[in-house]
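As a warm-up, study this chain.
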Amino acid sequence: MINILKKRIIKTLLVSFIVAAITTTLLLTGFLNTWESKISDALYSPSTTLEDIVIVAIDDQSLQDLGRWPWPREYIAQAIENLNQSSVIGIDISFFEPTDDDILLASALKTANVVLAMEYTSFSYHDGELYGETLLKPTTTLGTPGEDYQIGFVNLYTDSDGVTRSFTPHITGIENHDHFSLVIVNAYSGATPYLDNSRKLINFFSEPGGYTYISFSDVYQNKTNPSYFQGKIVLIGATAPDLHDDAIVPISNQAMPGVEINANMVQSILTRDFLTYQDDYSSIGLIFLFALATGLLLYRFKIHIATIFLALLAFVYIVIAIYTFDSGLILNILYPLLAITLVFIPLVVLYYLTEEKSRKWITSVFGKYVSPVIIDNLIKNPDQIKLGGEKRNITIMFSDIRGFTPISEKLDPEDLVNLLNDYLTEMTSIIQKGHGLVDKYMGDAIMAFWGAPLDQPNHFEMACTSCLEMIEKLRELQIKWTQENIPAVNIGIGLNSGIAIVGNMGSSNRFDYTAIGDNVNLASRLEGLNKVYGTNILITEYTQDKVKEHFATRKIDVVRVKGKSKPIHIYELLAKNDQLDAKKIEFVRHYEMGLELYFKRKWQSAVESFQAADSLISDDASKVFITRCKEFSKTSPAKEWDGVWEMKTK
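Now compare it with the structure written out below.
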């Protein structure tokens, strides 16, 4: 038996059937029914509503025109008389208590085909069926139900998540009655459609406001043409928000007035366009089918290929579910897709453990020389285990501790090692978390890059995010070091983006995955410029152009670094755009205004702007330019001066 279980196909089938059994149990116990309902809700989409259904709305305009609710019942009586050419009038209003003007309404009811609302107020279950214990009916002062008017109950089902999705066509109880919408259809067509007592899903044909709405006050004041209502179904009900006769429905997050919910039910019954849930038997069949298909695909293909097939299977099933929904059948979506997921995860883990031996071999050979990112890449592509390189667009980072040599001379070897270990551990963790590759350590310096060996189209943003997190973590370490009586060191970071040669470089016996080229050297030069301007992170104009929509920067200077003839614009990386406070924004504005004046040779105005910036936030870069401007005001630069500052050292 142990030998059989070791076989991959047996393991695959066993996991698939166990997961299918667990998922079936969840289905039968209704454990995730609320989530399944929410997924099904997303399939509702507006369609065509019947023009023969008109809603006379007790809306805000009516309340303004006719006064606060409740109104005298003579208003309803007058509206009935003005609507007497309609085929049937359904009034979704409670008339449970008598009033002084009931005689007027009673007379109007006898002149038209009217359905009034009643309501069951308590329920029990008899032999597993819903039983109405008590009810509220229209007051007897309005006449006799069945002779002077018809009645139907307006109770709806509201599910545990607060959404109204269904109704019961008939309720047996102290009195047996049909639903309000069913009675309206009977009064309209002269025949009662057969619907059993089971719960029915409402097919919502539109979002709130999809039917023809006419303000009650317009009908009452006879501003409408009576012939417009000829042969139509008219539903009268409250739509004003203050009257609180609405409910959340699956087709919209906006509450729908109860009278419009009744309109959707009337249309469903008239058109026989009902919705039905898929039965449990076929749902269970799909669960087992999808679980088995997932296992066999993972067994037959590589994980990434199987994942594509499974995603396609899920997509096709969702498309089919949309199609069947339009045909009136709601397929179970959650549980079959859950079966795919629950089979996929343990099998991937199982296959991973099975293939761990080959992974360990590659790790034992290369783990001492390359990063975990490269290890993963080599495991997926063993043919990359060779010397050579390729051109890649990457972002390179160099960081260095400021004044490390004097600090190291003041510390005991043990404290120095602890400081370096703390610093390098935290910085490395941030770089790797940000999907960067730590190329090498050079004493207290770190070289890293993004964009290789894996393709990372947003490597510019990833690098900037990681660098900002490094500075934030440094602030925390500075507090810790101060408490330990260790000098709180500062760092400088240089970032540059561009084409570099990346690959495995070295001898045939030992090689490293690294990056070389002019753009790498420029990032190193940029790191050193932080000393001049008192900044933490400097980036080149190319990097700044790629990230300016997401990150706040400050233009620092235009310089020509040692060993380069072409000048470069350099920027300080400050923060993400939404994290820069008003004071810092004002500081940057003054500084960059001063820089612009500096390039225009307006020395005194530039000094004033730099001083304004420095007064807001003490800034070494502002002080550098104040000194330059004062020197230039005494001795002007040559006419051909282009504003580029020549750096004499690295």
